[in-house]
Amino acid sequence: MKYIGAKQLSEELNLEENLFYDEFLKVVEEEAERNPDRFFLVHDEKKGVYIVDQGDLNIILDGFTEKLPFAQVTEGLDVDFEAMNWVLHELHERNAINEMTLNHYIELKEKPIFKIYYEPEQVSEGEEVSLVVELVTDKDVESPKLILKLPDDIELNFEPTLPDVISSGRRIDKYQLLGLRHGPKRIEVTFQGMIEGVQYEEELPVPPLKVISLPPELRVERVPRTSVISATYNQDVDIILRVSNVGRGAAQNVEVRGLNEHEEFRLLRGENVGIVSVKGRIDHPITIRPIRSGDLVLNDITIHYEDGDGNLLSTQLEPFTVRVSTLKPELKIDLDVAPMVESGEIFPLTLKVTNIGQGEARDIRFNIAVTPTEARMQGPVDYTRRRLNVSQSDENQFRIKAPDGGEVVFETTGITFNDEEGAEMNYKMPPLKIPVRKSVGAERMATNWPFNVGEVINRNFQIIEEVGEGGFSKVYLVEDLFLRQRRALKALKQSFINDPSAVESFIEEAKKSLNLRSPNIISVYGADNVDHMGQSFPYIIMEYISGGTLQDKIIPGNPMDFMESCYTIQDLCFALIAAHHQKIIHCDIKPSNTFFDNEQEIWKLGDFGMAKVMRGREALSTGYTLGYMAPEARDDPPIITEKSDIYSLGVLFREMVTGVPRGDLSVVKEVNRNVDPSNIGRVTEIIEKMTSRDPQQRPDLSELITIVRISTIKGR
Fold first, then answer.
1. Which residues, other chains included, contact 534 with Cβ-Cβ below 8 Å and sequence gap of 6+?
2. Which of 205, 462, 548, 559 is deepest in the core (most CB within 10 A)?
3. Closest by CA position to 687, among listed 710, 709, 663, 670
4. Residue 597: is its pLDDT beyond 80?
């Protein structure tokens, strides 16, 4: 068999290779036409031609017949193994040799034996594994190659170098692999080589590599770590679970179990946590809504999760208690009516029901009884309301016809209501008594009044405008014509001027107020009478304050600023110290009697002169400010001491810092996070003592003002 290379000829003839090769092919083609008994096999890659004549073909055919080995025939034809393989396939393509002859030469009679396995058999994510290839062969293998096809999540860290020739015998090679992700991995291995001149290639059977996931380990705790969680009936509460993964693998399908097994609450969210990565930490909220009060012990809450292979794991949460309480409502019932009525008069009665507690009031019901029977009430006497929210008020008006004389007594009885959970609560209030006097004639009442805008009283005080009205008096802004200063004039209402005892008490108590000297008390400058149309009308001249009242500032349900509340109480303490020193008890401390002086920027307490008039005579009681009244002051007969003022001041203090007169003091810290907690603690503790039902437990003014001063100084 001959081989003629175009490249070699072009170099010898000093011709350009590409141009010469085209001419070379033409020559070969012409020779093939002239010699049909010879095969001209053009090898384009080598740019040459193998010429197989009939003698060469006979050697190949005889070698098949005699079962001569491939190497012996190749040596007889004087070509190398690679060329011989190529020539045999070309002859087969041209039907010069058949399939059996071709297979005789290119098929191995004794193939090598392979065994492939892993050390170790399985690995965890991120660990190395050895792919071991054992080869046993009886023949030498030339130009061996081992080709690995790896998935994307398997890395090849080490590949051994194969020799040019693998000698017969047993050989072991180890390839170092790194498993990046868990799961079964399919690895393909192909072996190539030349054995006795025959090109050998085989895809080897490889078992799948099992990469197992790294084990997660979850730890769970509640934050904050308290044994008891406070909750409120029918209000959402969040339970925060801190889930930490201290294991080596990610935790999947993490969920909280055991929550749906409790009938005491509704689970709103929080069962599914999701995935917690390695070294990850999640503060996971669980929201429940209690539907029953009491202590709920949760000792069966578990965290279930899976590793990457789907194996189920779990951990137990330490038992804890959810203490559920029901916010309690508290009713304040006010009957607003004129302090005195005339016989036969049809007068209005305003009933105002306010929820001053912390929870919703439901199914409110009571009865209003009016005596004597001649006093006829026009309108329903049974009060019912389905619900009343916190700080919400309901107002109703009735009309009553006054009897000929005596008094009208209003008794509110059977006051019951329920909290949100259905527990029944009760409320009691003393009767309201309104005196009835004989009519002096409507026409006279309409004209016999000297305090009209523009009038000058006793040539001294010119009335500018009416600025307020209470149960038994009217207040006017007046101009002192001599001093050229503005004052306040308080006049006893016309319906009281025929009651000598009321007039006497009005004047006497006002005169006593002249002795009260304090920057925090509205000054009283004098008291006098003005004669008009045969009647004497008493009045009091007082300091005029234009800054409004505390009632204007307090918004129900919205706490005031903590420091501002303390300064206000401090001012009122100064006022009470001066009053109690003069043996005067106010008895009616409330937001509407607390005034702000814009010029001096201080709070002042007013109506000292009226307090004893109101409390000393039931006839002058203007409608029960029960929300601020001390318990002993509600007794019949009332017991009124300086500690009664302390109680009223405490209710006022609580209303300022919580937003409602009976507010929960725990909210003070929540809404004043910028205030030193020790200051808040001192103040809430003193408020609890001030509003104690036992007067002996209430602090003295000296103790109270010390606490308030410390809080204002340290709070700056």
1. none
2. 559
3. 663
4. yes
Reduce the DSSP state of residue 523 to 3 states and report it: coil
pLDDT tens-digit map of 189-212: 999 998 877 888 889 999 999 998
**Of 138-142, 309-313, 441-445, 534-538, which range is least confident?**
441-445
pLDDT at 596 over 80: yes
Question: Which one, of 617, 592, 458, 449, lies nearest residue 527 by Cα?
Answer: 458
Is the model's pTM score more than 0.90? Answer: no
Transcribe 415-473 into DSSP letters: EEEE-TT--EEEE----EEEEEE----HHHHHH-----TT-EETTTEEEEEEEEE-SSE
The pLDDT tens digits for 158-184 are 999 999 999 988 999 999 999 988 889
Can you give the C-alpha Rg of the chain in angstroms?
54
Reported as a pLDDT band with limits 50, 70 and 90, residue 625 is low
Output the average pLDDT for the chain.
86
- pLDDT of 326 above 70: yes
**Residue 61 pLDDT greater than 70, yes or no:** yes
Every domain of the chain with CATH number 1.10.510.10 lies at 550-714
Report the SS3 class of residue 98: coil
Q: Do the beta carbons of residue 579 and residue 585 sit within 8 Å?
A: yes
pLDDT band at 408 (very low <50, low <70, confident <90, very high): confident
| Residues whose CB falls within 8 Å of the CB of residue 427, separated by 6 or more in sequence, listed in order | 331, 333, 366, 415, 416, 417
Distance, in Å, from the CA atom of 283 to the CA atom of 276, rounded to the nearest integer, reads 11
> Contact, 383 vs 364, CB < 8 A?
yes
* Token duo for residue 151: 């998935």
The structure tokens 């009713």 sit at 331
> Could you tell me if 351 and 333 are in contact, meaning their C-beta atoms sit under 8 angstroms apart?
yes
pLDDT for residue 242 is more than 70: yes
User: Closest Cα to residue 691, out of 250, 330, 193?
Assistant: 330
Distance CA 489, CA 524 (A): 10
Short-list 634, 647, 618, 614, CA closest to 429: 634
Whole-number Å distance between alpha carbons of 700 and 431 = 31
Task: For residue 279, list its beta bridge partners.
Answer: none
SS3 label, residue 504: helix
Q: Residues of CATH 2.60.40.10 domain(s) within the chain?
A: 113-212, 218-325, 331-437
- 467: exposed, middle or buried (Cβ count in 10 Å: 0-12, 13-18, 19+): middle
CATH fit for domain 550-714, picks 1.10.155.10, 1.10.443.10, 1.10.510.10, 1.10.3210.10: 1.10.510.10
Q: What is the CATH number of domain 443-543?
A: 3.30.200.20
Place of tokens 């005339």: 342
Q: What CATH class does 331-437 carry? A: mainly beta
The string of pLDDT tens digits covering residues 668-683 is: 998 888 888 899 999 9
Burial 120-149 (b: 16+ CB within 10 A, else e): eeebbbeeebbbebebebebebbebebebe
List of E strands, 550-626: 594-597, 602-605
- Joined together, the tokens standing for residue 217 give 């380990």
